[in-house]
Design a protein that fits this description.
This protein has about 325 residues and is an all-alpha fold. The protein folds into two domains: about 1-120, no CATH class; about 140-320, Farnesyl Diphosphate Synthase. About 65% of the residues lie in helices and about 0% in strands. It has helices at about 1-10, 15-30, 30-40, 45-65, 70-85, 110-120, 125-140, 145-170, 175-195, 200-205, 210-215, 230-250, 260-280, 295-315. Helix 9 runs antiparallel to helix 12 (about 230-250). The longest helix is centred in the middle third of the chain and has 23 residues, at about 145-170.
């Protein structure tokens, strides 16, 4: 399957193919919902989505690994990534023709992500912002207000939506609105994870629910420790779920602003990530002593019809293909 996708994307250079395949395996192992949704895209686009996932996952693990976080390596690897990105001539700053543009990139995630950035002209600022948010995780353990959390989420989540927009091909003239909706969707995905992973994040010493919200419901950090979820924490989670659902509602109209062959991918991702909130509610908000998940039958019930629709859309229309970088 992956070889066919790489062929469809016009990726022929052996080291690039290896890099993309490693990113695909990373996505399949750690991002089940994301990976499942990616299968609804045209084959030529899937490797590029795997590359962006690989970039985000690799950086995130350097600070989030519960057993062996390596923040110093995050800084070293991130600086090298940005230097390699600049050397490859992203954003029209002196593209170098041919595969030699990637010969100096020695990390598989960097090689694939930089090739994707060049192919789709993804702004360098989005990679810089993501790495900055990951570095915040090294020292920042909480956020006083929702506005503070939004600044973090811009780099940790919103820019991932912005990176995806060129690959998803917004309709001509609707690019900015599509980007705005994608930013909201990235934040909704992130908040869904924060709600589900309260106890796990606390094990890392962090709380991603704004302190002003904790204060509003009389919740202390001690109340978020593993165990039954106290009633006032349940009320806090209900508040955060409502806020997150409002973001999903803002993002949803953006689906129709995308190329027809991209819509079912995002529609499915939205339904599956939004299903995390349903799972939290079904568990009576008991997220402090367990990790709730969208059951496999539910994931398949959402994804399989999406696959059928996506194939039908691909048979009716073809996405524009970028010229190889």
């Amino acid at each position: 399957m992956s070889g066919r996708e790489l062929d469809a994307a016009g990726i022929t250079e052996p080291s690039l193919r290896t890099a993309y395949e490693q990113c695909r395996l990373l996505n399949a192992a750690h991002g089940r919902t994301y990976y499942l949704s990616t299968l609804l895209l045209p084959a030529a686009k899937r490797p590029h989505v795997h590359a962006l996932y690989g970039f985000a996952r690799y950086a995130d693990e350097l600070v989030d690994d519960l057993d062996a976080p390596d923040p110093a390596e995050l800084v070293r690897w991130g600086d090298r990534f940005l230097a390699d990105l600049a050397a490859a001539g992203v954003d029209g700053s002196g593209h170098t023709a041919g595969d030699s543009a990637y010969a100096h990139v020695d990390h598989f995630v960097s090689r694939a992500a930089i090739h994707t950035a060049r192919t789709w002209d993804i702004p360098t600022e989005t990679f810089e912002a993501f790495l900055e948010s990951m570095r915040m995780d090294v020292t920042v353990t909480g956020y006083p207000t929702y506005a503070d959390l939004e600044r973090y989420m811009y780099g940790s989540a919103a820019v991932i939506g912005l990176q995806m927009v060129p690959i998803l091909e917004p309709l001509p003239g609707r690019e900015q609105e599509a980007a705005d909706r994608a930013r909201a969707l990235g934040e909704a995905f992130q908040l869904s994870n924060f709600i589900r992973d309260v106890a796990e994040d606390l094990r890392r010493g962090r709380v991603y629910l704004p302190q002003e919200d904790l204060d509003r419901f009389g919740v202390s950090r001690a109340d978020l420790a593993p165990g039954p979820t106290p009633p006032h924490v349940v009320e806090l989670l209900r508040f955060e779920i409502a806020r997150t659902r409002a973001l999903y509602a803002t993002a949803r109209p953006g689906i129709e602003l995308l190329h027809p062959t991209s819509r079912d991918c995002i529609r499915t991702a939205l339904a599956l990530y939004g299903g995390i909130l349903d799972a939290v509610e079904k568990a009576d908000h008991q997220v402090l002593d367990r990790r709730v998940a969208v059951p496999l039958p539910r994931r398949l019930a959402v994804a399989v019809p999406g696959l059928v629709r996506a194939r039908r859309a691909r048979s009716r229309t073809r996405p524009a293909r970028p010229q190889p970088a």
